[in-house]
């Protein structure tokens, strides 16, 4: 039997990878966490304004990495995608334990594998909705998180569930690396222990620890490397971002690189906050990449690599 053609699962349905277009490979339209009090991304109008500003610069797709229990507003994403004319890929998954009320976390931990698979294949419910509430858009990726230079018991439990969901669906696994650390530990656990193919793993926040040796090792293993800056919350290493990208390209790893904005707070939005926001990914960072590496490599980062990283032969 011939395997089904790879497709990118968006909140409005599956599309051909070539139709994804210019992609912000890691960002947030909705997000809340006790770690970011008063900075919630919870305003649909502000999310639409940010998407429209991104689209005005040629942006065609956004991958929202907000997982279960963090205000991801799966119910609002389809309408936003239609009105702004931008493809949106949603996430299932779970973040670090510190981002959750512990009672809520214990409830979420029950049946984690089944929930991840259900959200990838059938659809998600709003985080606060009862079990009988209508399903909304299906997720197109799994979001998990490592710790700072290590992996705790919660992380290992969530990674095992994510690997199960990957095996059931083929969905890519995006990993929050705390401070950009533990990238090789993550690959060891997901790939060597749980058997996830490295090219199905997307390592996020590598720009926060600009260690080119680790970057090259992760790329050589076959993982995708997400450089999700500039970021107001993590500006300290933004000035090293282009150096990291140039180093990887010179080492022959251009096909392993993704770029995103990672807007995590209301103040970081361009349309309603202080910026730089989602549009700066195209108005600023893309310009710098184009100048340093040329338009062909820029297209690889923004078009070709996301089309491959998020494409799945869904069952």
Descriptive report:
- By secondary structure, this protein is an alpha/beta fold.
- It has one domain: Metal-dependent hydrolases (TIM Barrel).
- Helices cover 37% and strands 14% of the residues.
- It has helices at 44-56, 77-84, 102-109, 112-121, 153-169, 183-193, 212-221, 241-250, 280-293, 295-309; strands spanning 7-10, 13-15, 23-27, 61-64, 87-89, 91-93, 141-145, 173-176, 201-204, 224-227, 257-259, 311-312.
- The strands form 3 sheets. A 6-stranded parallel sheet has the order 6-7-8-9-10-11.
- Helix 2 (77-84) links the parallel strand 4 and strand 5.
- The protein starts with 6 loop residues before the first strand and ends with a strand.
Keywords:
TIM Barrel; globular; 6-stranded parallel beta sheet; 315 residues; 10 helices; alpha/beta
Question: Mean pLDDT, as a whole number?
Answer: 94
Most strands sheet = 6 strands, parallel
- H-E string: EEEHEHEEHHEHEHEHEHEHHE
In whole angstroms, the N-to-C terminal distance is 13 Å
Uncertain spans, ≥5 residues at pLDDT below 50?
none
**How many DSSP H or I helices?**
10
CATH architecture classification = Alpha-Beta Barrel
* Total DSSP E strands: 12
Question: What's the CATH C level?
Answer: Alpha Beta
| Percent helix | 25-40%
- The proportion of residues in beta strands is 5-15%
Question: Which structural class do you get from the secondary structure elements?
Answer: alpha/beta
């Amino acid at each position: 039997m011939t395997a089904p053609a790879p497709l990118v699962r968006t909140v409005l349905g599956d599309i051909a990878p070539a139709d994804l277009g210019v992609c912000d490979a890691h960002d947030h339209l909705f997000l809340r966490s006790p770690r970011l009090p008063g900075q919630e991304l919870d305003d649909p109008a502000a999310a639409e304004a940010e998407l429209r500003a991104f689209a005005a610069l040629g942006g065609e797709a956004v991958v929202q990495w907000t997982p279960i229990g963090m205000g991801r507003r799966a119910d609002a994403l389809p309408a936003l995608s239609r009105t702004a004319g931008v493809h949106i890929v949603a996430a299932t998954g779970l973040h670090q334990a510190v981002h959750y009320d512990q009672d809520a976390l214990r409830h979420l931990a029950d049946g984690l594998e089944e929930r991840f698979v259900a959200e990838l294949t059938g659809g998600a419910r709003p985080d606060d909705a009862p079990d009988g509430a209508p399903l909304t858009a299906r997720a197109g990726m799994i979001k998990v998180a490592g710790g700072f230079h290590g992996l705790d018991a919660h992380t290992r439990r969530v990674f095992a569930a994510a690997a199960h969901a990957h095996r059931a669906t083929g969905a890519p696994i995006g990993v929050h690396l705390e401070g950009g650390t533990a990238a090789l530990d993550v690959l060891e656990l997901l790939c060597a222990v749980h058997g996830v193919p490295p090219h199905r793993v997307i390592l996020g926040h590598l720009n926060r620890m600009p260690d080119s040796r680790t970057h090259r090792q992760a790329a050589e293993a076959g993982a995708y490397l997400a450089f999700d800056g500039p970021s107001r919350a993590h500006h300290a290493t933004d000035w090293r971002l282009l150096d990291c990208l140039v180093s990887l390209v010179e080492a022959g790893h251009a096909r392993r690189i993704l770029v995103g904005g990672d807007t995590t707070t209301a103040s970081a939005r361009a349309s309603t906050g202080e910026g730089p926001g989602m549009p700066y990914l195209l108005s600023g960072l893309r310009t710098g990449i184009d100048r340093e590496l040329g338009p062909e490599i820029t297209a690889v980062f923004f078009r070709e690599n996301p089309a491959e990283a998020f494409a799945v032969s869904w069952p």
